[in-house]
Amino acid sequence: MLFDFNSKSSLLFVFFLHGLIFSCLLLVKGIQSNDKPSYWLSLFTFLCTLYISPFMLGYAGWYTENPYRDILFYIPFQQLLLLPPILYFYCKSLFDRTFTFRKVDYFHFLPAFLYLLYSLSIFLMDKVILKEAYFYEDGRDKDFIFEYQLAGFVSLVLYLILSLKSYKTYRNITYDTISYADSITFKWAQRFLIAFLGLLIFRGLFFILNPEWAEFGRKFWYYLVFSILFYYISLSGYLNSIRSVTSFLETSPDQKRILPPTESSNSEKVEVQDLEIWKEKIDRLMRIERIYENPELSIFEISQKLDTHSKKISQVINQGYDMNFNDFINQYRVKAVIKKMEAGEHTIQTLLGLALEVGFNSKSTFNRAFKRHTSRSPNDYIKENFQ
Predict the structure, then answer these.
(1) Could you list the residue range(s) of the whole structural domain that residue 307 is in?
(2) What is the pLDDT of residue 146?
(3) Helix, coil or strand: residue 156
(4) Distance between CA atoms of residues 307 and 314, nearest Å
(5) Average pLDDT over the chain, rounded to whole?
(6) Contacts by 56-59 with C-beta closer than 8 Å and gap 24+?
(7) pTM
(8) Is the dihedral of CA 358, 245, 192, 24 positive or negative?
(9) Of 219, 239, 259, which residue sits at a domain end?
């Protein structure tokens, strides 16, 4: 088989090979652990290996003779309208543990499906009906026409915006649902979205610097950087996972799904008299039972103790205290640590020990919460008040 192992084709071949490997590894991970994000990331990685294939094979000499040339021409390797929605649904499944693919979601793939039909019609016309290169008489790969490349770029922009909105929703719900939101690692999600943005920016720059998509030109460097970015996304996605402890839809005890707190709390207002009653109930639960000492406390547990739904608790906290649930609980924890300091416990125990006793689950979370509520670090607070 023809394959010229030169510096360019060989370098892209390394990423191509690793892309196939990680695509299989992610698929196996998805099957073994029933992990939906792994399925989507596996498909994304596979599509990325196809994306770089024309250039890897082109530098290896496939555009110079048949049947290799026809393979590159008639197989739509670059699925520019399929990659962006795949990335978006990866985000959706990553952030929302209740996410299920619905029939309406198939519309996201309609443009990609139409392009596949277009590619098939070209193949049938040239190879089956006319048996001559009618569509390809100019000798240029249709995957690289400017209009198609531009459509792929626009699609990437739109789906990046949707992914960012999905991430924002996830963060809001997490902070309004659980008391240990600060300890959840958002770093991988942030790095992933930055890499996604990097793909977008680099692709946009390349449109400006080298708009002749039908020519090989200087595109090797673009495909090399693209390969590095998709390899990073695939490798990091395989090694990392977001601790998605909440969902965009809450499941109540009787398994009926209701609106999450962040979607409903702004749409209704609690009456002032009712608000004060509920604030007193929640405050009593905090003071007497010290429920905040539970490091994995969630808004659902409080709603069960007060025999109501989490929507009501979220409304009261948001409206009555102008806080999200995470900040509200951490405020009680910080006050409890300060009481221990006033009792001199910081002289016989470490600050981390005090923090763990009141419900914090890490030193970094404690330090962030303490500074947020007192405008000082724990050590500075001690120096100013107890020395």
Answers:
(1) 251-385
(2) 81
(3) helix
(4) 14
(5) 84
(6) 56/9, 56/12, 56/13, 56/16, 56/223, 57/3, 57/9, 58/216, 59/4, 59/6, 59/8, 59/9, 59/12, 59/220
(7) 0.79
(8) positive
(9) 239
